[in-house]
Automatic annotation (TrEMBL):
Organism ancestry: unclassified sequences, metagenomes, ecological metagenomes
Gene Ontology process terms (BP): lipid catabolic process
Keyword terms: Hydrolase, Lipid degradation, Lipid metabolism
UniProt protein name: Putative patatin-like phospholipase
GO cellular component: outer membrane
InterPro entries: Acyl_Trfase/lysoPLipase, BamA/TamA_POTRA, NTE, PNPLA_dom
Pfam family, any one: Patatin
An annotated Gene Ontology molecular function: hydrolase activity
PNPLA domain: residues covered: 38-230
């Protein structure tokens, strides 16, 4: 995505604002003076200049009787229409982390446990739909879920008002009908949704459906909505144009700049048409923002100051709109109201086009009839529901019945229109710059909403070093239960190396087949316990090294797996924990060649201070009964896994590893336009692999370390590292894919 296009999208995220509330306005009059209208255009971060304009208007006692805005301007206009003064808006803006809003991805703490486990495979988070008609793509890179929740938060108190003329200052948001290209003036409905529609950049955000129309950014049809304000009865108009200027011939140097120019031309043409509605007594203010882009949120204070300066330079003309102190005080009193009382919820109504049952959806909503409305609780509930990964949009609205006065909480859950079957792909690569390279490709198909209880069928095909198929059917027991059953099959093959003194002794191609049935329980979205039975067979054929007979083995085992996951990021964790305990007991009565018990434990803990992160890891694997055959061989070696060795160079019936990794986020990005963070770090490690329990001891530990640089990209983490150990081994590594 071009940097400035991304910037424009970010610029529209003026929704990360604290709560502002209003009550229904009193009847307003303007006496004998003409009605004054304010017009705020779109323009991303450049739209912060509107706040400076409002500050100067208030300082000079210039009232605003009607207001309209497009895109970023609709946010500022909507807030001002609700009675929020400019000084409060300025405080809000200067405290915003603008990057936070440009994402639909749920904070990982809200994701369903199965979606968290999706993070741990090599598939990317990018997905397409798949049905009998072929591949389907979403209508935008973002669906606007987090954006609209934030917009709902800042419009607290406006829910009972669905006529924008009933706001303290009558308001209009401008959008574009993507089907016809026509301008759409939104004058009623949910104000947060109106703002969302006004700023839904085509291609970046999916269109917003209102009254049967698919609406996108209003800048395509009316970036400076002068006519809309004129139609609201304004006799005098103050119009603020902060549109991005056209590039010069010298600046048109790439396909990206040409694409940006096309977008700017469309916007500027609408501005030119709207300016025709200005009269001699109206005022057009164009802040000098030539040195600021739509992404310059970190320069918010400067942009606000430029808006102030431009407005002060126009005071000679604006002074005619000024009213005396007493009238202005009365005006401010009229548009400033105390927040309404938090209502009692009389009914909770969930509507959906999803295949999930109402009971399954309702299980995520903790507000009940008789409860006082709690916005924070509802937003958290919606975030957990959205974290299932099935929905494009979940919205809510408070509806007060005019007849009986009862308040209903209406929750609308919309499934992804490119689902419910999702296709993903991924790649992983590891190499040590000595010719030992492994590449894996994978394609995954996830079928969701298989039935009303939320069953899933997850299948992955692998190609390359690890090839084959893994497929699992997951079935919840009931709508309100965390218990489940699962059945899976696995047929894979991979290469396994045996080493001696740093040299490859032999290479075997290991072919494995397995069927398994599990029953288990999920503990919220943090943990999962499974118990089950697995029946498997394997065959190892020597492909390189001294000739040896083919090894065949059969296994049947009871197994238990407990997994705990609260990491905030599986690639470069900043906070949280991860742990997994796995126990397997092979029994001859289940078809195993021998009775063998296996166990492994892995623990991770991450902590952060500032830009500094520490990640600790301890893992231990044990072959009880002291029997290790090729399929059950535990392995160590490679980056952060006893660095300096080749990947999986050490093997044995027992392994132990302790690692402490330090890494630091840098103040710049690997790819700046995509905001891909860059890390630099180092590790210290200790561990070994042993063939017998008697060999285990501190004196036999191998000590290792590494230094590395990494980037958290859209296709997975990338690492370049150098590792070494006290056995004199050293190696350089290149990884694409998770190593933690």
């Amino acid at each position: 995505m071009p940097q400035r296009s991304t910037a424009l999208a970010l610029g529209l995220l003026l929704s990360l604002l604290p709560i502002a509330s209003i009550a229904a306005p009193a009847e307003k009059t303007v006496g004998e003076r003409p009605r004054i209208g304010l017009v705020l255009s779109g323009g991303g971060a450049r739209g912060l200049a509107h706040v400076g304009v409002l500050k100067v208007l208030e300082e000079n006692r210039i009232p605003v009787d009607v207001i309209a805005g497009t895109s970023a301007g609709s946010i500022i206009a909507g807030l001002y229409a609700m009675g929020l003064p400019a000084a409060d808006i300025e405080k809000i803006i200067l405290g915003i982390d603008w990057n936070e809003g440009f994402s639909d991805t749920s904070d990982r703490r809200y994701r369903a446990f199965r979606r968290k486990q999706d993070d741990l495979d090599i598939l990317t988070t990018l997905q397409a739909g798949l049905d009998i008609d072929g591949v389907r793509l979403p209508k935008g890179l973002l669906q606007g879920q987090r954006l609209e929740l934030l917009l709902k938060r800042i419009t607290t108190g406006a829910e009972p008002i669905d006529d924008f003329d009933q706001l303290p200052i009558p308001f209009r948001a401008i959008a574009t009908d993507i089907e016809t290209g026509d301008r759409v003036v939104i004058a009623e409905g949910d104000i947060a949704r109106a703002m969302h529609a006004s700023m839904a950049i085509p291609g970046v955000y999916a269109p917003v459906e209102i009254d049967g129309k698919l609406l996108v950014d209003g800048g395509l049809s009316s970036n400076l909505p002068i006519k809309a304000v004129r139609d609201m009865g304004a006799k005098l108009i103050i119009a603020i144009d902060i549109s991005t200027p056209l590039l010069t011939a010298d600046e048109l140097t790439s396909v990206l700049s040409i694409a940006e120019q096309v977008s700017s031309l469309l916007t500027q043409n609408t501005v030119t048409q709207e300016i025709k509605y200005l009269g001699a007594d109206d005022t057009l203010i164009t802040p000098d923002l030539k040195d600021y882009s739509a992404a310059d949120f970190d320069r918010a204070a400067e942009i606000i100051a430029i808006g102030e300066k431009a407005t002060r330079n126009s005071l000679d003309k604006l002074s005619r709109y000024r009213i005396d102190a007493e009238r202005y005080r009365n005006y401010r009193n009229d548009i400033s109201h105390q927040p309404p009382l938090t209502p009692i919820i009389d009914a909770v109504v969930i509507s959906t086009n999803s295949h999930l049952s109402q009971a399954r959806l309702a299980n995520y909503i903790n507000l009940r009839p008789g409860d006082r409305f709690d916005r924070a609780q509802l937003e958290e509930d919606i975030s957990y529901l959205y974290g299932l990964g099935y929905f494009s949009h979940i919205s809510y609205q408070l509806d007060k019945d005019t007849d009986d006065g009862q308040t209903s909480l209406l929750i609308d859950v919309r499934k992804k229109d490119w689902g419910p079957n999702y296709l993903r792909a991924g790649v992983a690569m590891s190499g040590d710059f000595s010719g030992s390279n492994k590449i894996n490709l994978a394609i995954g198909l996830l079928a969701t909403e298989v039935n009303a209880l939320g069953a899933e069928w997850d299948t992955q095909l692998g190609f390359g070093e690890r090839s084959g198929i893994v497929s699992e059917f997951f079935q919840p027991i009931s709508a309100a239960s965390n218990y489940f059953v699962a059945a899976s099959i696995r047929a894979q093959q991979r290469s396994v190396n045996r080493y001696r003194d740093g040299n490859t002794l032999l290479t075997a191609r290991l072919r494995e087949r397995q069927v398994a049935v599990d029953a288990g329980r999920q503990f919220g979205n943090r943990a999962e316990l499974r118990v089950g039975i697995a029946r498997s067979s394997s065959r190892a054929d020597i492909t390189t090294g001294p000739p040896q007979p083919t090894t065949n083995s059969e296994d049947g085992a009871y197994r238990l797996r407990f997994t705990y996951d609260t990491l905030d990021n599986p690639n470069f964790p900043h906070r949280g924990s991860y742990g997994q305990l796995f126990l397997s007991s092979s029994k001859s009565e289940l078809g195993a060649d021998a009775n063998v018990d296996l166990g492994s434990l892995s623990l991770y803990k991450a902590g952060r201070w500032g830009n500094n992160i520490l990640l600790g890891n301890f893992s231990y694997s044990d072959t009880i009964n002291n029997r290790s055959s090729l399929p059950n061989l535990f392995q160590l070696g490679g980056f952060l896994n006893l660095s300096g060795y080749a990947q999986d160079e050490l093997g044995g019936a027992y392994t132990a590893l302790a690692t402490l990794a330090y890494y630091r986020t840098l103040n710049h990005y690997f790819i700046k336009s995509a905001e891909i963070p860059l890390y630099i770090g180092a590790s210290i490690e200790a561990g070994n692999a042993w063939q017998t329990r008697a060999q285990i001891g501190f004196d036999s530990l191998i000590h290792a370390g590494s230094v590395f640089i990494g980037a958290d990209t859209y296709i997975g983490p990338i690492y370049i590292a150098y590792g070494f150990n006290n056995e004199g081994r050293q190696s350089s590594y290149l990884f694409l894919g998770r190593v933690f």
